[in-house]
Amino acid sequence: MSGIYVHIPFCKQACSYCDFYFVTKSDQKENFIQALIAEIAALEGQLFTEEVATSIYFGGGTPSLLSADQLGRIIFELERVFRLELDELTIEMNPDNVTPYYLKSLKACGFDRISMGVQSFSEKSLNFMNRAHDRTQALQALEDIVTSSFKNYTVDLIYGQPDQTSAELQEDIDQLMVFNPPHISAYALTIEHNTRLAKQVELGRVKPADDDDVADQMDLLAKILGNYGFNRYEVNSFAKERFQARHNQIYWTHGNYLGLGPGAHSFWWPKTPVEKERLMGYDMGFFRGLSSEQPTALRWSNPKDFTGYIHKKNEYQKSIYTLVESISELSLAEEYIWLGLRTSRGFDRNVLAERYNYKCDAKQQKRLESLVKDGKIRQSGESFSLTREGVRIADYIALDLLS
Ligand code: SF4
């Protein structure tokens, strides 16, 4: 089973913390759609379209800056070229794009899940992050979703902002709970290179939140959402029963996915020698020049070049892809442990042995035993997952186990 990620790179304005690839050239939407449709069409008959795709995720940028008609044309082409048996079709939206009519039109296109970028209800926070929407629009957007036929949606929140108090975070959560969403993704604000926020920090105009305060806010959030009946099934993801995101599971379990649009990333782990041979370029010419020591899986991306992307629309060349990483079996095994520790499912030694040909060494076994003893990891048979206390230091534990 595989997933398809479609990157829609348009944004109204730059949020201060964002390092995703986006452009503000809203007059180029039609050229972009044509280029995207050409990219999809060029994949016809290729390896990636042979595997059944169970999920499509429209992310960005801001996919909701496209009209339902434009989105429908993209979906139509995906349906024509790929083998789709979808159990999730998600679109990321920003609150200032939501209207009841738009939601209805998205439903008619086939979308069944919305990812709503609220981030905060506080005007102070929204201004600080330079979000394009305000509190009133965030409330109205959620009201519109709740009264629409979309039952499956998630809301993004950002905590750990400079000067944000726990009381302010609690207000955000209380406000969100009024709408009783089935899923929440909550992220600590991070300072990424080449963002306005990084510049503000560098110039001393903004002081990042203290790490301990951020960890306390994370605990507070997990506790409150737990009380509201949410299951924390991944470090940043909280869901009511039956509402876990399916697309992300593909990323977390090394499922294959194909990224379309400028800057989109792809991952493919071929299942047979023939598939591998095709992937490595004997058939498609994507990755000529790889060393004879062939990797187990590949990651690649489309360049972050909007102008180049739209100009390729009439003669789409797959050679635009850039190899990001050729991944060995050992790296995949280590990723599986790291990704597993971020989810409530954890990692399983049997899976490690069977799928990744990997066995924990004596040092790792010893570390695991001591983490279990310290209450940071829980063991169930051959499976290991983080306890609530362990989640607080998830990255540290992963590093400790893998170094
Ligand atoms: S809307 Fe999303 S993608 Fe666009 S700048 Fe803001 S955070 Fe980044």
Structure explained in plain terms:
- 40% of the residues lie in helices and 20% in strands.
- With 403 residues, it is of the alpha/beta class.
- It folds into two domains: 248 residues, Alpha-Beta Barrel (TIM Barrel), CATH 3.20.20.70; 72 residues, Arc Repressor Mutant, subunit A, CATH 1.10.10.920.
- The protein has a nine-stranded mixed β-sheet, sandwiched between helices.
- α2 runs parallel beside α3 and α12 packs antiparallel against α16.
- The longest helix is centred in the middle third of the chain and has 17 residues.
- The chain is globular.
Number of strands: 15
Number of helices in the DSSP assignment: 16
Q: How would you name the CATH homologous superfamily of the largest domain?
A: Aldolase class I
Radius of gyration: 22 Å
Number of domains: 2
Please tell me what the overall shape is.
globular
CATH C-level class of the largest domain: Alpha Beta
Helix- and strand-based class?
A: alpha/beta
Short description:
The protein has 403 residues and is of the alpha/beta class. Helices cover 40% and strands 20% of the residues. The longest helix has 17 residues.
Task: Record the SSE blueprint.
Elements: E1 2-8, H1 29-42, E2 53-60, H2 68-81, E3 84-93, H3 100-109, E4 113-119, H4 123-128, H5 135-146, E5 153-159, H6 166-177, E6 183-188, H7 196-202, H8 211-227, E7 231-234, E8 237-239, H9 246-252, E9 256-260, E10 265-268, H10 273-282, E11 297-301, H11 306-311, E12 322-327, H12 329-341, E13 347-348, H13 349-356, H14 362-373, E14 377-380, E15 383-386, H15 388-391, H16 394-402
Parallel strand pairs: 1-2, 1-9, 2-3, 3-4, 4-5, 5-6
Antiparallel strand pairs: 6-8, 7-8, 10-11, 11-12, 13-15, 14-15
